[in-house]
Design a protein that fits this description.
Keywords: Kinase, Transferase. It comes from Herbinix hemicellulosilytica. This is Carbohydrate kinase PfkB domain-containing protein. With 334 residues, the chain is an alpha/beta fold. It has one domain: Ribokinase (UDP-N-acetylmuramoyl-L-alanine:D-glutamate ligase). Helices cover 32% and strands 27% of the residues. It is built from ten helices and 15 strands. The chain has helices spanning 41-52, 68-79, 145-148, 157-167, 184-192, 202-209, 222-234, 277-290, 295-310, 322-329, and strands at residues 5-9, 12-19, 31-39, 58-65, 83-90, 96-103, 109-114, 135-141, 150-151, 155-156, 171-176, 197-201, 240-245, 248-253, 258-262. Strand 13 and strand 14 form a beta hairpin. Helix 6 (202-209) crosses helix 7 and helix 8 packs antiparallel against helix 9. The longest helix has 16 residues, at 295-310. It binds adenosine-5'-diphosphate and magnesium ion (MG).
């Protein structure tokens, strides 16, 4: 592969606040620090990829508002040499933003999200004809209302979009968010048939096929993870399903091969914030796929890129070049 990677979908700004405690409703918690960074699938995953390997051509597709946060996002993407021609600005609309409340002691976070322009960015805003890449990744389902809508022919607009990209000879990939939605499985399933790769966390994978990844004691059950992978492949994912969780990453290919790579054994107090760590895992996995690495190696890289992200409060500043990643994180391998 050499034509690059396009990522479409959620573009956002994160206001990352570290707090001393999560207050009860009506009570007060203290903000210990506050900063602004980029957020969302498009912005996080692309900036991570750019930092890993600046030679890969990268393209952003999505919607923003005509506000200062929109200027900020475009500026950061351009600083990373990411093509922003596919970004549409909607007059009078906000750029999506998230208040990320991170508990200082544990790094656990709670999100308050404003969908902003991601609410209106739609199929007709995506300039399919301009796509000249090897890989197309889209995320997140459940945060892009016009793509979650029903489509008579394909089931959902997201599925229609993925089908169109695949018909152009481009391999497709999708990510989701963990939300409560009665129709979770119904909304995801039509897209699976048009995904080459499906890279999600354990909660999202479970919800996709209505099977919990956890055993009776509440910990991840690998037998269930395997079953979930099989069901997702049966539902139509063409090449590979990848599931990540704090424990590590699993992958199953269309030939039924199943792999696991454990998360790194990180020093105490290493984790500053988990925001963007899933996107960083995705970036590592997409990198491995793009570079045609063996699956096990790609999973290991993905666990390392997730670890990079955990080293900083924001989504992208912990990311490093692929050579640095291999030399620094190799020693934390289990
Ligand atoms: N304590 C941890 N140790 C190792 N990896 C972690 C840890 N916490 C989070 N991660 C990584 O970050 C991922 C979080 O992804 P996800 O829940 O999708 O969040 P998001 O996409 O919002 O960043 C996990 O699946 C795992 O890969
Ligand atoms: Mg995620």
């Amino acid at each position: 592969m050499e034509k690059g990677i396009a990522i479409a979908g959620t573009i956002a700004v994160d206001y990352i606040k570290t707090i001393d405690q999560y207050p009860e409703k009506g009570m007060l918690g203290n903000i210990l620090s506050s900063s602004r960074g980029v957020g969302g699938c498009v912005t996080n995953t692309l900036c991570d990829l750019a930092k890993m390997d600046p030679t890969i051509p990268l393209y952003a597709y999505g919607g923003i508002g005509d506000d200062e946060n929109g200027d900020f996002v475009v500026r950061v993407l351009k600083e990373h040499d990411i093509n922003t021609d596919g970004i549409v600005r909607f007059p009078g609309e906000m750029t999506a933003f998230t208040d990320v409340m991170t508990l200082v002691a544990t790094g656990e976070r709670t999100f308050f999200n404003a969908k902003g322009a991601n609410k209106i960015y739609s199929y007709s805003d995506l300039d399919f004809d301009s796509l000249e890449v090897d890989l197309f990744h889209i995320g997140y389902a459940f945060l892009m209302d016009p793509f979650d809508r029903e489509d008579e022919e394909y089931g959902t607009v997201m599925a229609r979009a993925l089908a169109r990209v695949q018909s152009m000879g481009i391999r497709t990939s999708m990510d989701l968010v963990s939300v409560e939605n009665e129709r979770y499985s119904e909304i995801v399933k039509p897209s699976l048939r048009y995904c080459n790769y499906f890279i999600v966390n354990e909660i999202e994978a479970g919800k996709t096929v209505n099977l919990s990844p956890y055993g009776p004691d509440g910990s991840i059950d690998e037998v269930r993870i395997r079953k979930i992978c099989e069901l997702i492949l049966e539902a139509g994912v063409k090449d590979m399903v990848v599931i990540h969780a704090p424990l590590g990453g699993w992958a199953m290919t269309n030939t039924g091969e199943f792999y696991f790579a454990p998360s790194l054994k990180l020093p105490q107090n290493y984790i500053k914030g988990t925001v963007g760590a899933g996107d960083a895992f995705c970036a590592g996995m997409l990198y491995g796929i793009y570079k045609e690495m063996p699956v096990k190696e790609a999973l290991e890289i993905a666990c390392m890129t997730a670890a990079c992200s955990l080293s900083e409060y924001d989504s992208i500043s912990g990311m490093k070049t692929i050579d640095e990643i291999k030399s620094i994180y190799g020693k934390f391998r289990v």
